[in-house]
């Protein structure tokens, strides 16, 4: 909550964009024509002008942003919690009540963006005033803070008390209505900046983020300055390359999304549900058992997915195994094995690199190797030269060549093969579980969602062999 | 490198203005091939039906803000990390806690599950990324087997294993990303180019598996070549910090969530921003985004405690989910797309001195 290191010139990092947006919102709420309808609120014998009720606020939000009541209530509550609105009655809890509780808009003086961070001295004065005004008027947490501050700034405590008395005296000179309003404003400010225990602080932002603007800080010459020059050189370089990049028309790219999403829709459990049921909804994890990485009989959707792209076929262990079978029949299984070995090299540990490169060479690349892979001569030459200084990317070119070979040649044949067709035919389509809840209603044949029966939170036995770490 | 001070200033100013003018030219080039908007193309697509997702599991056990979580490939286990240094591994299906470790630092902002399911990685204000092998042996202390892998000069904001347990990609508040060998802690590649803290990263689901995207406080999203360390593409349309980046399932695009209260979609082939997901009533930053399996839905967690669900194609909001009492800090869809998990800063006061914080799984 405390402010971090001094701000790096210009706008404080703490002024998050949401604050200025909230401020714009409350300003438009106070617009005489388009804003929330205001009324005068009678409190005992005083009349406070420009008050609004929770309902007024909600109605305005609903109307202005086309949102539901729930969302409007949430948004209104956030405005109150951030201190942009305060209740005139019982200003101890910053909530948006939907009864006749009157609210007013906080004066910009007390806005989070104006007066932040709250000064300890000001807090001390505020607490002192409260203490003087009414003995025992401080809440427990306020008493604690009061004592803490007293200890901390005991040398200036006389000043604090003097200020407090002066402010109280000045307040007495005001009209009762004004006095009440100022007291509420101040109280709200401190509720936001020094929330009582149990109330989350809206000021918390997490660890400080240093934002270096393009202008950079004016630092004395030294390492920082040098880095800046490097930074811009790199950026210019990157931009020059970016300019030369080949681009694709938007229409082509965007069409691809439509195709992708419609193709994958049935495979998306959140969109289309899953058979037999979504484990999270029914507590039945058969779905996971049936789709386990090493399931003996894959489901139909799963086998269909192997036809979507070569990458997805390889990513599925069962798919990959069947593809390997297919390649064996075509006497080109060494291609896939080579590709797997290259993957191991690229993503494996550094210590294994030399041994792995050597093993790959012996097995796949050396003249007369047992499982020699057919790479074009230029790539082969380049690779063999590179093997002299093995590193994890030394087989990248060869790997890509073999990958493309499989993708363009073997993969399409696989999809047309009897092997694949049989797999599709034998694939399982699990039966629906009764009383299933589909989160999504897209097709009419899916029954309307039945109310989810949330399970009692008794401990559940982990079932299925899929989850052992 | 110039040694004369004045010369350095000249170079600096001229470089700056060159960068600015190149940026302008780049935007012009990008605009040339932009012949249609996504929502126009999506007009032919059927609108989505009624959307119902509920909290199916609430994971209580963290005593303080949950900052990050990641799914295990087994589709049910998760690892989560929090402000007080606790890192917990759960079987979220049963809600049982399986492992717990306390980091020596607070604000563990990054955590990741290893592809094998046998280890986790985490880090935060300690500026490091450490790997903990997971063991069920009662006699073993998890913290004893900890391996310190990555070393940055500022906080660790994100980490991810690559295709195996042996390599880790990290993003840091020191403005860089880096690729590390887990076994030796060796730095394999570093990625320089962000002008401020890097807050997030995501690996591309591509055939060659060689790129990743990162987002930072400099409002830039940058795509990197893992082999050369070079920035391949950069996008600078957000108005504030980018808190989260996530690839579209095809790998041809990625989404970003930012403090400017918008989520955006950037297409890599068109080389431009192609959609903005925003609403006037949404004014708090988006902290975390993820796609459903088909890429049709974008789930985004916000700092106003809500989760908004967007129709990626039509650009409209499908639903708003209220389920947290403080900002949503992390959100990930499960590997098989059956659910998503959200973590937040909230706590529920149960009895006077006992606080719960929740992670929730929605389906």
What does this structure look like?
The complex is a heterodimer of chains A (469) and B (363). Among the domains of chain A are: 18-110, Winged helix-like DNA-binding domain superfamily/Winged helix DNA-binding domain (Arc Repressor Mutant, subunit A), CATH 1.10.10.10; 120-193, Methyltransferase, Methionine Synthase (B12-binding Domains), Chain A, domain 1 (Orthogonal Bundle); 292-426, Regulator of G-protein Signalling 4, domain 2, CATH 1.10.167.10. Helix content of chain A is 51%, strand content 4%. Chain A contains 20 helices and 4 strands. Chain A has a 4-stranded antiparallel β-sheet. Chain A is elongated. Residues 1-12, 212-224 and 441-469 of chain A have low confidence and may be disordered. Helix content of chain B is 9%, strand content 48%. Chain B has 2 helices and 28 strands. Chain B has a 4-stranded antiparallel β-sheet with strand order 1-28-27-26, with no helix packed on it. A 4-stranded antiparallel β-sheet of chain B has the order 2-3-4-5, with no helix packed on it. The longest helix of chain B is centred in the first third of the chain and has 28 residues, at 5-32. At the A-B interface, α1, α2, α3, α8 and α9 of A face α1, β17 and β27 of B.
What topology emerges from the helices and strands here?
The complex is a heterodimer of chains A (469) and B (363).
Chain A: H1 17-29, E1 39-43, E2 46-53, H2 54-65, H3 69-81, E3 85-87, E4 102-105, H4 120-133, H5 140-152, H6 157-172, H7 176-193, H8 223-243, H9 250-264, H10 269-272, H11 279-282, H12 286-290, H13 300-305, H14 310-315, H15 317-329, H16 333-347, H17 353-365, H18 377-386, H19 396-416, H20 418-426
Antiparallel strand pairs in A: 1-2, 2-4, 3-4
Chain B: H1 5-32, H2 38-41, E1 55-62, E2 66-71, E3 77-82, E4 86-91, E5 96-102, E6 110-113, E7 119-123, E8 128-133, E9 147-151, E10 156-161, E11 167-172, E12 176-181, E13 187-192, E14 198-203, E15 211-216, E16 221-225, E17 231-235, E18 242-247, E19 253-258, E20 263-267, E21 272-277, E22 286-291, E23 297-302, E24 306-311, E25 317-322, E26 328-333, E27 340-351, E28 354-362
Antiparallel strand pairs in B: 1-28, 2-3, 3-4, 4-5, 6-7, 7-8, 8-9, 10-11, 11-12, 12-13, 14-15, 15-16, 16-17, 18-19, 19-20, 20-21, 22-23, 23-24, 24-25, 26-27, 27-28
């Amino acid at each position: 909550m405390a402010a971090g290191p001094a701000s790096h010139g210009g706008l404080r990092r703490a002024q998050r964009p949401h604050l200025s947006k909230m401020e714009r919102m409350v300003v438009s709420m106070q617009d005489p024509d388009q804003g929330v309808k205001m009324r005068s609120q009678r409190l005992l014998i005083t009349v406070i002008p420009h008050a609004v009720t929770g309902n007024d606020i909600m109605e305005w939000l609903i109307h202005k942003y086309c949102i539901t009541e729930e969302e409007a209530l949430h948004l209104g509550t956030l405005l109150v919690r951030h201190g942009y609105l305060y209740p005139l009655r019982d200003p101890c809890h910053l909530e948006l009540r939907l009864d006749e509780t009157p609210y007013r808009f906080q004066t910009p003086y007390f806005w989070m963006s104006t007066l932040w961070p709250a000064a300890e001295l000001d807090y001390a004065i505020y607490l002192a005033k409260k203490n003087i005004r009414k003995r025992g008027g401080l809440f427990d947490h306020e008493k604690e803070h009061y004592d803490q501050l007293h200890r901390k700034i005991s040398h200036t405590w006389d000043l604090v008390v003097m200020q407090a008395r002066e402010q109280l005296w000045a307040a007495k000179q005001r009209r009762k209505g004004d006095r009440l309003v100022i007291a509420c404003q101040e109280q709200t400010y401190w509720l936001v900046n020094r929330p009582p225990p149990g109330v989350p602080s809206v000021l918390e932002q997490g660890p400080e983020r240093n934002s270096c603007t393009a202008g950079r800080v004016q630092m004395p010459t030294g390492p920082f300055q040098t880095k800046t020059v490097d930074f811009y050189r790199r950026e210019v370089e990157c931009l020059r390359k970016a300019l030369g990049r080949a681009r694709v028309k938007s229409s082509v790219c965007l069409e691809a999304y439509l195709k992708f999403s419609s193709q994958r829709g049935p495979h998306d459990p959140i969109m289309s549900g899953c058979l037999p049921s979504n484990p999270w909804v029914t507590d039945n994890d058969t779905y996971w058992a049936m789709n386990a990485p090493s399931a003996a009989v894959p489901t139909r959707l799963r086998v269909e997915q192997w036809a979507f792209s070569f990458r997805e076929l390889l990513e599925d262990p069962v798919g990959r195994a069947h593809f390997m079978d297919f390649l064996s029949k075509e006497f080109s299984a060494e291609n896939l094995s080579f590709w797997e070995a290259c993957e191991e090299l690229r993503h494996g540990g550094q210590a294994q690199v030399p041994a792995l490169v050597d093993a790959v060479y012996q097995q796949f690349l050396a003249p007369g190797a047992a499982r020699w892979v057919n790479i074009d001569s230029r790539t082969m030459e380049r690779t063999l030269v590179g093997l002299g200084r093995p590193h994890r990317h030394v087989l990248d070119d060869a790997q890509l060549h073999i990958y493309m070979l499989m993708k363009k040649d073997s993969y399409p044949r696989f999809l047309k093969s009897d092997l694949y067709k049989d797999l599709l035919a034998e694939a399982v389509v699990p039966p629906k579980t009764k009383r299933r809840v589909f989160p999504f209603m897209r097709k009419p044949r899916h029954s309307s969602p039945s109310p989810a029966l949330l399970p009692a939170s008794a401990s559940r036995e982990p079932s299925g062999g899929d989850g052992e770490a | 490198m110039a040694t004369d001070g004045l010369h350095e200033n000249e170079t600096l100013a001229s470089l700056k203005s060159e960068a600015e003018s190149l940026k302008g030219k780049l935007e012009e080039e990008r605009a040339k091939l932009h012949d249609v908007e996504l929502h126009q193309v999506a007009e032919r697509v059927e609108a989505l039906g009624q959307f119902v997702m509920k909290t199916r599991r609430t994971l209580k056990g963290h005593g303080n803000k949950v900052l990050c979580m990641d799914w295990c490939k087994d589709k049910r286990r998760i690892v989560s990390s929090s402000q007080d240094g606790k890192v917990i591994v759960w079987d979220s299906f049963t809600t049982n806690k399986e492992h717990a470790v306390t980091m020596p630092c607070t604000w563990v902002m990054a955590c990741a599950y290893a592809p094998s399911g046998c280890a986790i990685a985490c880090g935060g204000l300690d500026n490091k990324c450490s790997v903990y092998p997971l063991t069920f042996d009662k006699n073993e202390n998890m913290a004893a087997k900890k391996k310190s892998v990555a070393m940055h000069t500022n906080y660790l904001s994100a980490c991810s294993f690559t295709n195996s347990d042996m390599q880790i990609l990290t993003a840091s508040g020191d403005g860089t990303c880096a690729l590390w060998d887990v076994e030796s802690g060796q730095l394999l590649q570093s990625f320089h180019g962000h002008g401020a803290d890097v807050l997030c990263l995501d690996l591309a689901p591509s055939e060659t598996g060689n790129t990743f995207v990162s987002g930072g406080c400099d409002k830039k999203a940058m795509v990197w070549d893992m082999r050369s360390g070079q920035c391949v593409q950069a996008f600078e349309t957000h108005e504030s910090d980018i808190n989260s980046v996530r690839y579209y399932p095809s790998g041809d695009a990625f989404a970003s969530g930012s403090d400017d209260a918008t989520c955006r979609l950037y297409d890599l082939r068109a080389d431009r921003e192609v959609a903005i997901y925003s609403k006037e009533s949404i004014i708090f930053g988006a902290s975390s985004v993820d796609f459903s399996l088909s890429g049709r839905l974008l789930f985004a967690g916000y700092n106003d405690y809500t989760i908004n669900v967007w129709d990626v194609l039509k650009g409209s909001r499908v639903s708003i989910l209220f389920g947290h009492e403080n900002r949503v800090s992390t959100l990930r869809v499960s590997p098989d797309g059956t659910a998503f998990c959200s973590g937040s800063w909230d706590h529920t006061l149960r009895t006077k001195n006992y606080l719960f914080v929740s992670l929730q799984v929605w389906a």
